[in-house]
Amino acid sequence: MTMTDPRPSRSTARPAEAAPPSACSAHELTGWRRYLTTPLAISRIVLLLGLITLGSAASPTLHDRLRALAHLVPGAVPAAATTADLAVATVLIVVSRAVRRGKRRAWALCVVLVSLSMVFDLAKGLDVEEAAFAAFLLALLVLGRRHFTARPDPRSTGRVLTVLLAGPVVATLLGTLWLSVDRYGQAPGTTLGERFREAGHGLLGLPGPIRWTSERADDASAIALAVLGLAVLLVLLLALMMPADGPHPLTDEEDAQVRGLLARHGARDSLGYFATRRDRCLLALPTGRAAVSYRVLGTVSLAAGDPLGEPDCWPDAIAAWLEECESYGWSPAVLGAGEAAAEAYRRAGLDALEIGDEAVLDTAGFSLEGRAMRGVRQAVTRCQRAGLSATCARVRDLDDAQRREILDSAEAWREGAERGFSMALDRVADLGDPEAVVVCARDADGVLHGVLGLVPWGPDGLSLDLMRRRRDSANGIVELLVATLALEAGALGVRRVSLNFAVFRGVFARGDRVGAGPVLRLWCAVLRWASRYWQIESLYRSNAKYHPEWSPRFLCFRRATDLPRILTAALRAEGFLVLPSPSLRLPGARRPVTEGTSVDA
């Protein structure tokens, strides 16, 4: 976090018109020098150097330079330097992202790679221009070293050890396979064991046991195996730069902290209980009075909902979380913050963007009577005529057979990838959530047709977790479940229910009104087009028919340039964007069955 000195600088202490032109020029020069040594500027120059080096390595060398170089180095050196320069350029392009995040490891790696690039540029064809540009970048790296303080991401040590142990083995096997397929220049009678040892020695640049019939074949083999060894080293270096990703299992100690904070302050936020998800981390104050629940995806630390605990302690918890983001080079973001929390994040230096509204139902005033509830009443009546009825129960009151039936049915009815992060739990009918409520719809024979799962929201509230139903269930079963819950809420001691989150609800609500401007109408049309693929407008309509109170929710972020990464991280967390990588099962986790807060009528 950049602190601003309140005292006026010398350049601002005197009137601007009194400053001589030379002073202004010096000030501008200082400003440019300061900018060029920032991680953002250096990352762009690193990327540019990588692209220039790729183009230089792929283009033919000037004949006069190559002829002059031939008198200084052996003939195989230019080819080897060109290959090595291509590898260095590739790594520079990839590592430029880590440089932008201010990673210390990325800075050290760039210093080494840029130095090597200078040598390779001269060795492959006396490319003085590229070498001079690399020297300029090296000077910037040295001058800006104080800006690169971000620590390595958590769990990178295990990843590096995996590459360190498996990389040489895989490279040796590939080298052995290549030597077995391409036997040109090998002496007759070369065995598989000799090829294996030749590959192992060649990775380190050492001669092996194979006898070669020509010097050209020997040089070609040595260069190819050396490049293969260099590739292993580069993969290892890239593993050091890769950001932390994927679920970070919630520890038992953190889970106990979350539940303790919820017991004291859980009534403040309907999303608070979702902090018990097993794929979230917790950053709590040493006093235990406040905490931030988050998950790291790529280079984004994505928090969800309001901070936990006492609002007076939220600024300290937010500051600790932002400090951690700064130390690791993560981009901070908050998904679904309430109005009070958004203001607290804004005071901490983040910006806030309203992204939708949460539907909150007051169960005390709920009734199926009246013209306004006609649609809901008709849907409930239709299900009742079909022989369906619904019941509500706390998870603690269900027996093992009932919980198993709900769990199996919810899993069988789930369509598509698992979804949910900010407003969904990663389990259902779990004994670890005894105060959770399950609403079940059954026919006259006791067959389960639909399930509504809700988590506690303080002592007198519930927050929607998931909604599942049979594909052949009667139309209107969602209305039956919600209406039954609202009408029986008093027996459960519940007076408010958070139904769902409607993205950009205000756009749909105001877009059809008389007098809506062209920008609003265009934005409404875009969202309706997107609703063909995602439940955007349908979620709003399905909640609006219950006439709930609407509570705004916000997306908080530091810089507008971070929004593409934040949007990608949010889509990944919510399950709308699935990367082609193996799934990671969390230790001790049961089968995931939560699809999210989607209510599909």
For the structure shown, list the relevant keywords.
single chain, about 600 residues, alpha+beta, Aminopeptidase, 3 domains, twelve-stranded mixed sheet, 20 helices, 12 strands, about 50% helix, elongated
Describe the model.
The protein is of the alpha+beta class. The chain has three domains: 36-241, no CATH class; 252-357, Aminopeptidase (3-Layer(aba) Sandwich), CATH 3.40.630; 359-548, Aminopeptidase, CATH 3.40.630. The chain is built from 20 helices and twelve strands. It has helices spanning 10-13, 21-36, 39-58, 63-70, 76-100, 104-125, 128-143, 156-181, 192-203, 215-241, 252-265, 314-328, 339-347, 374-385, 400-413, 477-492, 505-511, 518-530, 537-544, 563-574, and strands at residues 281-284, 290-297, 300-304, 308-309, 331-337, 351-362, 389-394, 437-442, 448-456, 461-469, 496-503, 549-557. Strands 1, 2, 3, 4, 5, 6, 7, 8, 9, 10, 11 and 12 form a twelve-stranded mixed beta sheet that branches. A hairpin with a 5-residue loop joins strand 1 and strand 2 (290-297). The chain is elongated and about 95 Å long.
